[in-house]
Structures are given as C-alpha cells and as structure tokens.
Design goal:
The structure is a single chain. By secondary structure, the chain is an all-alpha fold. Among the domains are: 31 residues; 73 residues, no CATH class; 109 residues; 118 residues, no CATH class; 115 residues. Helix content is 60%, strand content 0%. Helix 12 runs parallel beside helix 14 and helix 13 runs antiparallel to helix 14. 27% of the residues are buried.
C-alpha cells in the first residue's frame, strides 16, 4: 500500500484521521491579476535579452545561408517574404486544396481571398465604401468611373470620402512605406517621385463637389504634397480665391503651403493662421523649419531656425525628433559634405565652422531629451538618430556618440529605426567612430563581435579600418584578425584591395607567437583562402565566366609564401609554376592575368626557404620567376648561393650559369 500511495501520504492520512482539525481551513481564491497581452513577452525580453554573439533572429538558419552583408540581408529577407506571398497567392488561387482542413479555431489568415474586382462587383455605394475603407485607391477610381458611366447615383458624402482618399494618394495605390503586412516591401521598396496627376479622379471630384472649406483645404494639401511649379501656383491661387470669398482653410492646408514656400512667405502664412485663430501644431513648425532651410546663406538659415525654436518655446510646443532632424540635416551645407568638394581653405574653414555649430546644437538637444520618454510624433522622427550619428562621426566626437547610443537603446525611447536599413547605418557609423577613436584591440574585438553581422553588415570600409588598426598596434590580436577575415570570406569580398589586405595581414603573422590551436586555425584559414581564390580563377566556362577572378602574379607569390609557411611546399610550387606557364595566362582557358609581377619580398623569402631546405628545384623555380624582373647583376649572386647551398651536379651547374648569362644586363 505504501509503495503505491507513498509514505508521506500515508502518514498525512493517518494524522488527519487520528487528530481532527480544531479549525476548518478555508480556501481563498485570489482575484486574477489584470495583464496586457504583451506583459509576458516584456517579462521574457527583460529576462533573456538579445544574444550579441549570434546573428539577428530573422536570419538564424543553416550557417552557410546566414547573410553577413547588407545586400545579402536584403536578398535573404525579401526571398522569405516573397515565398510567403507566393504561398498566399497559391492558397488564394486554389482554395479547394485546403477545403478539408479542420483547424480550430478556423483562421482566415490561412484562407486569403482575392480582392474585389472593380469591374465585377455590384456598382453600389456599399462596394465603393468598402474599397475606400481598405485603401484600394486605383480600384476605387475604376469603380467610381464605372458607376458614373452606368448612371449610378453616388451621394455627396461618399464622393467626399473618395475625394479624401484619391487626393491624399494622388489617385495611386498606397506607397510601399505604408504597407502593413509586408515588412520587406515596407522597408526596401522604393517609391518613385510622384507629381500631381492632372485631370485624374481628384480633379474631377473637386469640380463636382461644392467648394467648401474642407474640400478646398484637401485640394490645397494634395497639390502641395505632390508639388511642382504648376501645382504650387494652382494651390496658391486656390487659397487666394477662397480667402477672397471669405472662406477659411484648415491647418493641414496651411502646413502644406508653408512647407512649400520661402521663409518670408511662410512667416506671412503663419501670421494669417494666427489671425484666423488656428493654433499651430508640430507639423506647422516642421513646415516652417523646412521653409527656413531654403535660405541660401548659412547665417540666415541659422537665424531663421533659432527664431522658430524660440517661438515654439514661447507657445509651449515641444519640438519633435523630426524637428531636430530637419535642423541637423541643414546646419551643414550639403555641397561641403564631400571632402573632394572642399578644395579651398575658405571652404574647409566654412565646413569646420558649420560642423562645430552642428555639434553644439546636438549637445543641447541630447541634454534636453536625455531621460525623457521619447514617442514617435511623425513618421520621420527615427531619422533624427541616424542624422545625429552622422554628424558625430564627421566630428569624431565619441563622447556624444556614446550618449546618443545610450538614449536610443534606453527603455524610455519608443522611437525605433527600421532594422536592416536605417538602423544598420546608425550602428555602422557608431562602430567605425568607436574603432577609430580607440587603440585597444581588445575593445575593438568586443565592439566588432557584438555588432557584426547582427546589427552592422560586413563592408569594405569597416574591414579596412580594422585591418589598419591591427597593423598600427604593437601586439597582434589573432582572434580579431581571424574573425574579420572569416567575415570577409563569408561576405564574398576577397577580391581587389581587400583581398590583397587579407594576404598582407596573414603574411605579417608571426607563427611562433601563436599557440597550438591558433596555428591550426591559421593553417585552416590559409587553406580555405587559397582554395577559394583558385576555384574562382577556374570559372572559365561560358556560363560562369562572369564570376571568374583570375589570379595575379602578386597574388600567386603571396599565396605560395603562405602555403610554404604551413608546410605545403608542393602546392606552393604548383602555384608558382603558373607564372612560368604561358598557357595559363593566354587563351579562353586562362586563369592568370598576363600583366603584373610577383612580390619581390615574397619571392625572396621563398628563395631563402628553399636554400635552407637545400631544395634545388624550389630555389631554381624562384630564381626563374625573379629573372622576369631582375637583370644579370642581381641574378648572379643568387645563382652562386644556389651552387653553395644546394647539391648541384656539373650539368645542373652549367645550365644554371648559362641561364644567368643569357639574362640582359
């Protein structure tokens, strides 16, 4: 009995039967704690946190497919999204394939439906309002045109709803930036610059509807949003005509006119707003700031911006991060941002003066927003952070960059940049600034491994910067060098100047300073690199020739030297023989560039290594390659050293001396 029930339960049962409780215990059920749907997720996030050594969670996959560059991240993310869209399209096109699914609860997301066809649906106001509500702009226009052609009556209220939609979107479908379900297209999709579609449904409805304050304001706002010279003139004319008839326009129309005008005109429009008792909002002041940035002279621009900020403080309007973004973006002349365009001393002094002022403004801004709860007020608030980091990067101000990063990553900040695009640029600028300002390779290693490739994609400028820091340091940091080289391999950036830098860095590694495991890593890394370069040089088939990267003589000599250092002399001399094989550098099957020369310092070390090992073949091969760039006077001492160090028979001696004698003086 005890075995089945348990000793503890037996004792508890006997105790309860032997001594009845004097007071009965009541079970009290506590009231449920009200929690939001995200409380559990927030608790997990605060407990676990991100793994800085792993790739971004969106890219966790087979290691060979994890992207490391920004372009690869975009390709990977969009491939996943297009796969989902293709699956959804299949489910929409052939719904009968899923007719026997018995999922409970039944999820409409797995049974997508085709959008209503404006040429097939019933031409009723209900159908039109449904399309307007779902923001199917072009379909709404088609259905409205169809209803007009079939003489279907459309109420003024419905026409007004359609007018709002088509004017806001210029009779076009919603831009990628407003796609809700597809993050890839929202972040990576590029919307072209749109100009006002004259004579479209918006113009037709405006002529049909009564000229009320609302309809005129909507039209002015649309014309200013998709502005060119003609549409701006029309918007201003509409404003004058409506004011002449004692009409009033809404604040949104004023904001559009202000943002599209010069600063002097914008101030008059702001005064007109005040006379009509229309209080300005943050969009009004952003429009004023935009108008102020059109001032040609730097001093006038700064004066105008200062006036606007003072007016905001007087009215108690707190600037949004988008307001600061407009200011910072225009404190330095765009024509001075590129160093190539700063030719004269006057331009350089102007750039330094403007950059100093921008840093001063940014310091004040960061002091003001530090510790505050930051919320997105406009859609462009997130651009403040990347613009601010760009200024600090140019000014080499690491202290303020650390403060800016702390504000962005704080829990009180709700303004976040889109990942993989703007946010990656933000962290890339910070990382390069931090690396430039430190001499500690250990700190560089910690920063690099915590951000690359999770937050920052591998790129040429970052890799080159780390290589320069490694070269300048007195001590070598094998872990950092190995990590950067592996990232370079994974990102496919082994060709050109970066590949040359990789070989240079490996050639400068002192093998006697490495431990046993590190030497094994060095050997494996050299083998991998040489194999990659040789494989790409053999892409001689027509279908793969665009991927071919021929070996250069300098590349071959450096690879041979590295192979010799890891004990693979046979492979090294097989590579060197390519420099002496004319067929390897000519014809359609060529794998070696016909131009260029082997590195003298690499060939000198290979020659000395062959002499130490008394390798007659190796020393003679090195001598023949060096003869391609050296004259007889330089070759004779080398030939004499071969005769001294190696076991050379009389025939070999005669051939060697004759070879040197035939070289030009």
């Amino acid at each position: 009995m005890i075995g089945r029930i348990g000793l503890g339960r037996v004792l508890s049962r006997s105790l309860s039967t032997a001594e009845p409780a004097a007071v009965s215990q009541k079970l009290t059920i506590q009231p449920a704690i009200e929690r939001s749907p995200t409380d559990l997720l927030n608790a997990l996030s605060e407990t676990v946190g991100p793994d800085t050594t792993a790739p971004h969670f969106a890219y966790i996959d087979d290691p060979i497919t994890i992207p490391s560059t920004q372009s690869a991240k975009k390709t990977y993310f969009m491939a996943k999204e297009f796969g989902k869209r293709a699956a959804r399209e299949l489910a929409t096109e052939w719904p009968t394939l899923f007719a026997f699914d018995r999922d409970q609860p039944r999820l409409p997301a797995f049974r997508p439906q085709h959008l209503a066809d404006p040429l097939q649906v019933a031409p009723t106001e209900k159908s039109l309002l449904a399309m307007i509500e779902s923001r199917e702009v072009q379909d709404s226009c088609i259905l409205y045109e169809r209803m007009r052609s079939e003489n279907v009556e459309v109420s003024e209220k419905t026409q007004m709803e359609l007018f709002r939609l088509v004017t806001y979107y210029n009779s076009s479908n919603i831009p990628y930036s407003e796609w809700e379900n597809w993050a890839g297209m929202r972040n990576y999709g590029e919307d072209g610059q749109s100009v006002w579609k004259s004579g479209a449904v918006a113009d037709l409805l405006f002529e049909t509807l009564p000229k009320t304050d609302e309809s005129v304001s909507i039209m002015i706002s649309g014309l200013c949003k998709y502005s060119d010279h003609a549409t701006l003139d029309r918007a201003r004319q509409l404003y004058k005509e409506h004011r002449a008839s004692n009409g009033k326009i809404y604040r949104e129309a004023f904001n559009g006119l202000i943002g599209a005008s010069s600063y002097s005109v914008a101030k008059k429009l702001a005064a007109e707003m005040a006379s009509q008792n229309i209080s300005p909002d943050i969009h009004t002041f952003n429009s004023l700031l935009t108008a102020a940035t059109r001032s040609g002279k730097f001093e006038e621009r700064v004066k105008s911006i200062t006036e606007i900020i003072g007016e905001m403080k007087e009215l108690g309007v707190e600037p949004a991060l988008s307001s600061y973004h407009i200011i910072l973006k225009n404190l330095v002349d765009s024509k001075l941002l590129e160093s190539e365009k700063r030719e004269s001393d006057e331009q350089k002094n102007a750039y330094n003066r403007q950059l100093t002022l921008a840093v001063s403004w940014l310091n004040e801004i960061l002091s003001g927003i530090s510790g505050q709860t930051l919320v997105p007020v406009t859609s462009k608030c997130n651009l403040f952070f990347v613009e601010a980091m760009g200024i600090l990067y140019r000014a080499s101000n690491e202290k303020l960059a650390e403060q800016l990063l702390s504000i962005y990553e704080s829990k009180t900040n709700q303004v976040k940049m889109p990942e993989f695009t703007i946010q990656s640029m933000f962290y890339n600028r910070y990382l390069q600034l931090a690396i430039e300002q430190t001499a500690s390779l250990n700190r560089i290693y910690d920063l690099y491994t915590s951000m690359v490739p999770r937050l920052v994609g591998v790129n040429n400028s970052l890799s080159s910067l780390v290589f320069r820091k490694i070269t300048a340091a007195s001590d070598r940091h094998w872990l950092l060098l190995r990590r950067v080289i592996n990232d370079t391999i994974a990102s496919g950036q082994l060709n050109g100047a970066l590949g040359e830098e990789v070989r240079k860095q490996l050639c400068e590694v002192q093998l006697h300073t490495l431990g046993t495991s590190e030497r094994e890593q060095f050997t494996a890394l050299v083998q991998k690199l040489v194999a990659v370069w040789i494989e790409f040089s053999k892409f001689t088939e027509e279908r793969r020739r665009r991927l071919q990267r021929k070996l250069s003589p300098s590349q071959i000599s450096e690879c041979a030297l590295l192979l010799t250092r890891i004990g693979e002399q046979q492979k090294a001399y097989e590579l060197l023989e390519l420099l002496l094989d004319e067929d390897a550098s000519s014809g359609e099957e060529a794998t070696v560039y016909p131009r260029g020369h082997a590195r003298p310092w690499a060939m000198a070390e290979l020659f000395e290594d062959a002499l130490r090992k008394r390798d007659t073949y190796g020393a003679a091969t090195c001598l023949q390659i060096m003869s391609l760039t050296a004259n007889r006077a330089k070759l004779e001492p080398l030939a004499n050293r071969i005769l001294e160090k190696c076991n050379v028979n009389p025939d070999q001696k005669r051939i060697l001396q004759g070879f040197v004698r035939l070289r030009p003086q």
